[in-house]
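Supplementary Methods, section 5.1.

A reviewer requested that the exact input to the structure prediction be made available. We therefore reproduce it here, unchanged from the version used in the analyses.
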Amino acid sequence: QTQLVESGGGFVQSGGSLNLTCTASGYALSHFAIGWFRRPPGKERERVSCISMSGADAYYEDSVKGRATISRDNTQKKAYLQLTNLKPEDTGVYLCTVGSNWCGMDWWGKGTLVNVSS
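The structure derived from this sequence is encoded token-by-token as follows.
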């Protein structure tokens, strides 16, 4: 059974930090690119960050550049997104995705909620 499960979300004050984890089961994770997206309240899903199969290449949207770090551990079948200096506009459901395309987008987790208060 293939599954992606996000964890690590929560309620945090502006300026705080969170470490999100995506745990994959049923996937040979090393064969896929990974992406983190988010869905702000009342808005469309938006891309946050992507990482290549090997982990050598990473991409960040301007909105999180300098405040986010994406990483992966193919042996543990996990991906991570560290967010620092959080802002209220970072609030949303954060989703992990994997796939054969850049930034995944073939399979999705259900997400973990990040709520940043001012």
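The mean pLDDT is 96. These observations are discussed further in the main text.
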